[in-house]
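hey so i finally got around to running the thing on that chain from the lab meeting. sorry it took forever, my laptop kept dying and i had to restart like 3 times. anyway pasting the input first so we r on the same page abt which one it is
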Amino acid sequence: MPHTETLPLLLKQLRLPTMQRRWQSQHKHALQDNWSMPQYLSVLCEEELAQRENLRLQRYLKEAKLPLGKTLEKFDFNACQVHQAQISHLAHDGQWLENAENLLLFGPSGTGKTHLAAALGHAQVQRGQRVLFSPTTTIVQHLQQAKRQLQLPQALAKLDKYALLILDDIGYVKPSEIESSVLFELIAHRYESTSLVITSNQPFSAWESIFSDTMMTVATVDRLIHHATIIEIRGESYRKTEAIRRAQKIG
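ok and heres what got predicted. didnt touch it at all, straight out
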């Protein structure tokens, strides 16, 4: 005859911490409400799965390195010219990630490109996708180091685990041969396999200031736009507008 005294130990060995913590309290509910044994087990299993999903999303959110507070709920769509319904669709739909499509956000400095990119990343994490947000210069420096150590293919492969890679401010990459080369290799590596979100305050016509030659610029743009949504954001700089508001309050 099995002894219930061993149940906590068994649940621990099976790595079911939520069931281990909740089986007694739920057993009381089962007795009070005349649950069947399958109903009792179903409730415990549902709680275990829900907790695992919650912990998984917390882990994904931490590793995504998204800027704090940059969510769609906190974005002021009235302060810029951008199609809110289109952004909302990208946030709540995962088909574009499944299709390895890209999203390119263009606009002057301070118009909310980074906020929107981070908000879309946050929404996709909530959908269970793995996301990584990075200033473009940071990830380029990381890949530069990997290339010097003859480890670039391995470094690119490690990024494959992220269904969405967000490269913020691509225009700040220095037009040196090694920097533009590793950036091109990253974009080429992810082409038609995983998605990119890229923000830029420079139009494609100015991207020769990023890449070392015209051929590399054309090849990069060609790969990015082949399967992409391109959004241009218009409006005044948030930072400039906020500075004016503060000055008016002081005055």
